[in-house]
Design brief:
CATH topology: Thiol Ester Dehydrase, Chain A
Number of helices: 5
Oligomer: single chain
Strand content: 25-35%
Distance between the termini: 36 Å
């Protein structure tokens, strides 16, 4: 089940927190609960992706983006992600999550997130390609910039490793190969 109670708690905190700039880092703290675990008593890899929502959505609130989404009747979607797992997170471990915008292109915004354990070791890192949508599809980032009042005319150069991931995604065939049963 989706962690709605934790999301509501984190959103309440975000509403009370100071507004943040577009390139500031949102920091949140989480506890790995028993329902987040797999059969090896470790944070489930799929649940990790769900918990990363608890960093992105409150960050969007602190930036004022959620007000814009309501006003414009836009949606927020994930259009791709790449994750690296490096350290175990076990039941009742405390983690710090860091979430920040890396940059954007014409259609997508790229966000980096990472989880850190009590020993200050990075347990996982996620880069997510996000988009805002309306009834016609993806809202271009220049329209988003105008709506939120951010000068996006000088997009920061994305790190080389992110640019190469984007290139790899562009080469990936879609739809994927499907084997038809005989």
């Amino acid at each position: 089940m989706y962690p709605f109670i934790r999301l509501f708690k984190d959103m309440a905190r975000a509403r009370r927190a100071p507004r943040m700039g577009f390139f500031d880092t949102h920091i949140s703290h989480h506890l790995c609960m028993p329902w987040d675990l797999d059969m090896w008593n470790e944070l489930n890899n799929g649940r990790t992706l769900t918990l990363y929502d608890l960093g992105r959505i409150p960050m969007a609130e602190r930036m004022g983006l959620l007000d814009v989404l309501k006003r414009e009747r836009w949606g927020l979607t994930v259009a791709g992600s790449v994750v690296r797992y490096r350290r175990r997170v076990r039941g009742f471990d405390r983690i710090e999550m860091q979430t920040r915008v890396l940059g954007w292109d014409r259609r997508f915004t790229y966000i980096e997130q990472s989880m850190w354990n009590a020993r200050d070791e990075c347990t996982s890192q996620l880069v997510v390609r996000t988009a805002l949508t309306d009834r016609n599809g993806i809202v271009t980032t220049d329209r988003v910039a105008t709506a939120i009042g951010v000068d996006m005319s000088e997009a920061p150069v994305l790190p080389d490793w992110v640019a190469r991931w984007i290139e790899a995604e562009d080469m990936r065939p879609w739809p994927p190969h499907r084997t038809v049963p005989a």
